[in-house]
Amino acid sequence: MDLQTELVIVGGGLAGFCAALEAARAGHEVILLEKQAETGGSSAMSGGCLAFAGTDLQRANGIEDSSELLFNDLREVGQFENDEALVRVYADKQLDTYEWLKQAGVQFGGHIEASSGQSVPRVHNVDPADTVRIIAARARETGKVRVLASTAAQRLIRNAASGRVEGVTVLQDGEAFSVRGRLGVLLASGGFCRNAELVHRYAPQYDAAVFIGGEGNVGDGLKMAWQIGADNRDMIYIKGTYGKHPTDETNHHSCLAVYKGAIAVNQDGRRFVDESISYKLLGDACIRQPYGATYQILDRKILESGDNLTRILDLERRLEEGLMIEADTLEQLAALIEVPAQALLDTVNAYNGYVSAGSDPEFGRQHLVHQYGDLVRIEQGPFYAYPSTAAVFGTYCGLCIDPGMRVLDVYGDALEGLYAAGEIVGGLHGAAYMTGTALGKAAIFGRVAARTAMAAASREAA
């Protein structure tokens, strides 16, 4: 049952299908392998945010943005630990990919919000599962993309003479066979948030965290690449995302009331962090608090300022779901969440004073989120508390790649015939994370990887 094609893609999330569609539209045959019975993976489970700059939606909302500002924000939020060349690829290719997604039929919500790491609002909202389905449908419509579900890639196949990666061995219904591609293999198999052993190896502080992601995200692609000498990066920057309700098992999304003006307090009723920083850094701060559990404290005005089109900012929906704790006074709220009442009162009063004075001497908070938004006082009852911990939604680290998405070995040389895109790669995010860049890099880097594979084949043919 050995199969032959032009490009082999491992992983049926957004990165894999964007790469498949890009290659197919250029006339190339593709076989896409998906270990699970259904495609979509972590992409379909995400919050549906993509970070784009300079779009028509931003202009319609009166927002001035640019690729250069996006580039600068990405470098800054990543604390300059990210790969400048990869950040440049994202910034330079993002607007074209936004238009490409729209032309493929992806629907973006009309309202734009600001979130983690953004100096201006640039969260472009989609239904994530629908987005993957739409791109997958466009790929299948070309007649050049064959999807093999319930088919797990096992090992990479290299040419015995040249060492070039030319396929993978796979397992389907207990039967092993090979899938070979003239253009090579593109790994888009996601991260490893479902592999507790691997997470512990790099981030033992998150052993007790909540883990949410595609069931197949156990690091298969990483291990296959590591076996042939691939290098990795950013492994020390695995972080949990702040704002996950610690006991709710039906809502898999974070709630970021802090980005609309709430404060975060621990079990002692005290603030512990600048609430405007990346929610990955907030996750680090949270997990160090007693029991790894905290509360976001807000009032009615902040609740009503939420955005029902952006899942992480849909505050009233969380109230309707019974996840917000509500009280008429801060004293009553303190009793309900079992924190010292006087401590909570003192914390809120001190914070309100900082807002009025225009300076936060405790933690240096200046904006709602990153460099955007004026701080607001917490004073209009009823008051609310949202129990919050850190959840590992994705690992945001992985294989070293060059700007063409070629996988690099431990000496910095390209492993010929091997490409990677999406969550499996490191280098873009660095020390923290901007909302929307996980789905964003899946689409952008998936397309770039396919183009590089096609260009390499053309050069060889010439």
UniProtKB/TrEMBL annotation:
Keywords: FAD, Flavoprotein, Oxidoreductase
Domain of life assignment: Bacteria
GO molecular function, one term: FMN binding
Signal peptide: none
GO aspect biological process, one term: steroid metabolic process
Xref: Gene3D superfamilies: FAD/NAD(P)-binding domain, Succinate dehydrogenase/fumarate reductase flavoprotein, catalytic domain
Transmembrane segments: none
InterPro entries assigned to the protein according to its UniProt record, in alphabetical order: FAD-dep_OxRdtase_2_FAD-bd, FAD-oxidoreductase_2, FAD/NAD-bd_sf, Flavocytochrome_c, Succ_DH/fumarate_Rdtase_cat_sf
Domain FAD-dependent oxidoreductase 2 FAD-binding as annotated: residue spans: 7-439
Names of required cofactors: FAD
Similarity comment: family membership: Belongs to the FAD-dependent oxidoreductase 2 family. FRD/SDH subfamily.
Protein name: Fumarate reductase flavoprotein subunit
Gene source species: Pollutimonas bauzanensis
